[in-house]
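The data are passed on as follows:
___
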Amino acid sequence: MIPEGLTKMWEQAVAIWISGGWAMIAIAATALVMFGLGMQIWLKLYATGFTVVKEQTWRFWIDHQDQRTGPIGRLLDFVTGGTSLQNTVVFFDELRATEIEPFERDLRVMKICVSVAPLLGLLGTVTGMLATFGALASGAGGEKTMALVAQGISEALVTTETGLVIALPGLFFQYHLVRKHERYKAFLAHLETVCTQKFYKQTESAEEPEIDSFELSSLPSDRQPCLEPAAICPEWGSKIPSLIH
């Protein structure tokens, strides 16, 4: 059973909403799009897991592929799957195109909805005042005329208030999502830096020339090094014992 007080509150809210006129429909659609996109962005950012996994953990996962788990693990599997430094850069470009750009597009739409809501309320104010002036011009001053004037003023005030009530929470919500999105972009940039540095170091170590060991006996006899200190400096011959006995 729904409490009686809640039922009366709902009926009053519906009556106030209807009194706002047709502009309330546009405001409701704007609010639905704005908060729907906001919740979608928030859920997607939360699903990335970048705030849950510590930096020490994902740095460890870069070198230990079998330990990777969750969304960050799958992300590392994608960006570290290349065989060269150029492939890693291309993978991060693809990641930004698939992860960052949809967020930015939705945030732009949400920002537009935040700006549109009070404008729709202002439009409702104008239509309500026009209805009020029309009632005053056409009426004879009776109760019917006063009812039409009251209806026009109600429409003007309700739409303005509703537009502001929708826009203010949407503005703060959009600001919070932008900050969270910026943190995710910074995380991806930091991850790209770490991955490219590690791959570059691995490439450099793999390209270092190896010095082949060789036997002294393979050299000509006249170029073999002498291990007798006396041969290097005759004056030391009596002071430094021979290294070969």
User: Anything to note?
Assistant: Residues 4-218 form one domain. Helices lie at 4-19, 23-48, 55-63, 70-79, 85-138, 143-207, 229-232.
